[in-house]
Write a structure and sequence with these properties.
7 strands, 2 domains, about 200 residues, about 30% helix, globular, five-stranded mixed beta sheet, two-stranded antiparallel sheet, alpha/beta
């Protein structure tokens, strides 16, 4: 469970120390309550962390909910306002931690970049490829589960077995393989769409 806000003062960001510096959000579980803090690291030092890819707003929320915000407490350093979608994600990340002494280091743009500092935002966007590229893994949040979730996950599992070489150059042959695999999954064996990805 996310901690109750006890400090209404807004969190104040410290300036990043170098062009290759980023902040990481530290999520901790503890008997007295979950906590959040920010830690500055330098990408040149190859830090260990994960990254998050998500939408700022919940695509399944109604028009009223998409403008709602929530607040998280950054230790004793003040509070940060985040979108309700990110708040939901943080709840899931905390629940996924294995025990009360666990923590996670993760890069989340909405929190780890000072959104009120346009110069910093520009600099961080310019190294976004490094941030995601150096992450140990990137977690992808597709939204809260609904009636189609299990079907989609099953489709992804079938689509990836056996593995295709996605590192290869995208060619007509690879596209044909992907198209054929999807046709098999859907029960059509690729018929009726043999020329969809035909090259010039």
């Amino acid at each position: 469970m996310l901690p109750t806000v006890v400090n209404r003062m807004s969190y104040i960001y410290s300036a990043l120390q170098s062009p290759s510096s980023i902040r990481l959000l530290i999520l901790r579980r503890a008997p007295k309550g979950d906590s959040f803090s920010l830690e500055e690291v330098d990408l040149d030092d190859n830090p260990h962390y994960e990254a998050l890819s998500y939408t700022w707003q919940d695509p399944d929320a109604d028009a009223i909910d998409t403008h709602k915000e929530a607040t998280i407490q950054m230790g004793k350093s003040g509070s940060l306002t985040v979108t309700t979608n990110l708040f939901t994600i943080l709840q899931h990340l905390l629940k996924a931690l294995p025990d009360q002494s666990s923590q996670k280091r993760i890069w989340i743009d909405q929190i780890c970049i000072n959104q009120n500092d346009m110069e910093e935002r520009g600099r961080q966007v310019s190294i976004m490829h490094r941030i995601y590229g150096q992450a140990g893994q990137t977690l992808i949040w597709l939204g809260r589960p609904n009636q189609n979730t299990s079907v989609c996950l099953d489709l992804l599992r079938k689509f990836g077995t056996p593995a295709l070489d996605y590192t290869a150059t995208i060619t007509t042959t690879l596209l044909k393989q992907l198209e054929g695999r999807l046709g098999e999954i859907l029960g059509h064996r690729g018929k009726g769409c043999d020329h969809s990805f035909a090259g010039p």
